[in-house]
Amino acid sequence: MEADISSQAVGLASSADFSLMNLFIRADIIVKSVIIILIACSVYSWAVIIEKFKIV
Question: How would you label 12-51 residue by residue, b for 16+ Cβ within 10 Å and e otherwise?
């Protein structure tokens, strides 16, 4: 009985694709917009950090 349940769980896990790109593609528009905003803020903050180091 336990072997059947564990084999079913393994089968379900192997068929699901949890790559970042696939998760992004399957996400809702609100989730996609939040992710894009977070990436843009990260790029901006790194640009500020690098600019501060160039000044010093």
Answer: eeeeeeeeeeeeeeeeeeeeeeeeeeeeeeeeeeeeeeee
Question: In this predicted model, what pLDDT tens digit does every residue of 2-38 receive, in sequence order?
Answer: 666 666 655 555 667 889 999 999 999 999 999 999 9
Give 1's DSSP letter: -
Task: Name the H helices within 1-56.
Answer: 2-15, 20-26, 29-55
Query: Domain spans of the chain?
Result: 18-56
Residue with tokens 């609100």: 30
Q: How far apart are CA 8 and CA 10, in angstroms?
A: 5
